[in-house]
Automatic annotation (TrEMBL):
GO terms for molecular function: hydrolase activity, acting on glycosyl bonds. InterPro entries: GH, Glyco_hydro_79. Belongs to the glycosyl hydrolase 79 family. The lineage of its organism: Eukaryota, Metazoa, Chordata, Craniata, Vertebrata. SUPFAM superfamilies: (Trans)glycosidases. This is HPSE2 protein. It comes from Nesospiza acunhae. GO terms for cellular component: extracellular matrix; extracellular space; membrane. It holds the Pfam family Glyco_hydro_79n. GO terms for biological process: extracellular matrix organization.
Amino acid sequence: SELIRGFLLSGMPCPSSCPPGLLALMAPGLALMATFSLPSQAGDRRAVPVEKPPGVKGRTLILLDVNTKSPVRIISENFLSLQLDPSIIHDGWLDFLSSQRCAGPSAQLLTPAPQPFVDFCSLLMAEKRPKDTLCLAISLFSFPFAVDIVRSDIALDKQKGCKIAQHPDIMLELQREKAAQMHLVLLKEQFSNTYSNLTLTARSLDKLYNFADCSGLHLIFALNALRRNPNNSWNSSNALSLLKYSASKKYNISWELGNEPNNYRTLMGRSVNGSQLGKDYTQLRSLLQLIRTYSRAHLYGPNIGRPRKNVLAFLEGFMKVAGGTVDAVTWQHYYIDGRVAKVTDFLKTRLLDTLSDQIRKIQKVVNTYTPGKKIWLEGVGMTSAGGMNNLSDSYAAGFLWLNTLGLLASQGIDVVVRHSFLDHGHNHLVDQNFNPLPDYWLSLLYKRLIGPKVLAIHVAGLQRKPRPGRVIRDKLRIYAHCTSYHNHNYVRGSITLYIINLHRSRKKIKLAGTLRDKIVHQYLLQPYGKDGLHSKSVQLNGQPLAMVDDGTLPELKPRPLRAGRTLVIPPLTMSFYVVKNVNALACRYR
C-alpha cells in the first residue's frame, strides 16, 4: 500500500473547491516564506528580550535599529509551505479541492504578491474518462501522513486548460456532514492506535496531481514504508507500481518514504531502526534512477518525530547510511496536546522557546554527518491530536505560529511545512466553508511582506538583569527581514519588521539609526468580535478581514505612519511594519 504525502510547492493559484483567494494566497505567496530577524547578541538565535525591571513604573521606550549591511541568514523562497491532511482522501474533501471556493484562497496564500484569479486550479473534474483500474492500497493514519504544499515558480500563463468545478451548496452541506462522521472515526482510530486501510485509486492520484499542477504547486508524495518483507526490509513492489504509473502520466513529483518512522512499533507491532530506514531510502533512490522520469527527482526524509533521545539515535543511524541520499532532512514538531490545551498555553514564553532547542539538536546530528545539508520542518502544528475547536484555530494560536516562523528562519531552517491547509481537525488555515481562519491571514501577510533575507536587530532599553538559575523569557519578540521583492508596492531596500507582543500592556518602540525618520506602513492584526483571543475572525488596522466573494480576497490596506512616529504596539497582538525607502544594502539585490 502506498502512503501519500503531497508537497504542493506552489507559486500560483489553485484548484476549484478551495476559494480562489485562499489558494491564490498560497501560490507565489503561499509558499509562505518568512524571513525573521536575528538578535544582535552573538550565538543567540531567539528574538531579543525586552523587559521592564521590577519596580520601574511607567512605560519603557524601546529603541530599535536593524543591521542593513548584510543578512544573517537567507532562507528558501519556499520557506512557508503547507500540508493537506491525507484524511481528505478518506472523507471526500479531495473532490472539493477543485472548486472555486477552495482554489482562490490556497493559490493566493502561496503567492508573494497579489495575482489575478483566472482559469487555473482545476482538478479537471468534469473530464470524462474510463474508470481507472489501477489501485494503490494505503494504510491511512490520521496523524502520520499528509499532503504538503510549497511554492513553485510555474508562471500563471502555463495554467491554461484548468477549469474550476462548481459545487452546489447542497453538495457542500452533505460533504460537511460526511466529513463530521469521518472525523469521529479517525479520532477513535487515533486514540486506540488501530487503523483501517484506505485504497487509493489511480483516479484519486490523478485528482491530487491535477490539483497541484493546475494550482502551480509541486507534489511531494510519501510512499508507504510499513510494507515489510519477513527480514524487515522494505517491500517496494507496490511503490514500483505507483512510480511506473506516475511516470506513464509524466507527473513531476518528488518523493519521501514513510512518516514518523520512530513510531512504527506502535503502528505495526515491530520497529524499524534508523540504519534499516537508511537502507530503504537507498533502495528507493535506486528505484527512482531506474525510471527516466524520476532519475533526478528530489528525495526527502526521514520525517522523524520530536527529537527526544531515542529519536536522535534513530536520526544518527539514518544519517550514517542515507545522509547523502536525501536532498533535505525532515522532522516534525507539535507544541501542545490538543486534548488538554488552554488559551493561556499559547501565551507562555516557555512553550514558544521549546522549538529552539529542538532545532539545535537536529542541526547537531545533521551537521555531524552531512555538514551544510538543508533541514526542513516538515509538519508543524500548534497542537497535536487534531487540535481543539476555538483554540488551535483561533487568534491565540497565531502567537505560536508567527514565532515559529521567526525562530526557524533565524536559525537557518530552509523550509517549514504547516499542518494543515484543510483537514479533519482544528489546526487548519481554512474552515469547512473554505473561509480563512486567523492563521491564514497571518500567513498571507507574511507571504506578501516578508522576503528570504533575515536581518539582525539591535535593541536598547531597560532590561531585567537575569538572576542565577533563572531564564528571562521574551514577551516582546521582534524579527526583521528584507521586504519581499515580489511586493511591488515597496521599492527594493525596504525592510519589514514583525512583532509579537505577549504583554498585557502596550509597548512603545522608537526606530533609530538607519530606520530613523522613515515612513512606516503598519499592518496590525487583532481579534475581531466578542470572543477575544478565542475569535476565529481578525481585523487588520481596525477593519475586519473576510472574503469579498468565493474567489476574491480583500485588499490588505496598510495604515501609513508619519516619518519619525513612535510605534505603539497594543497588548496581545501581532503586527507587521514595512519601513519604506531605507535603501538597505542587504536588500537591494536578490
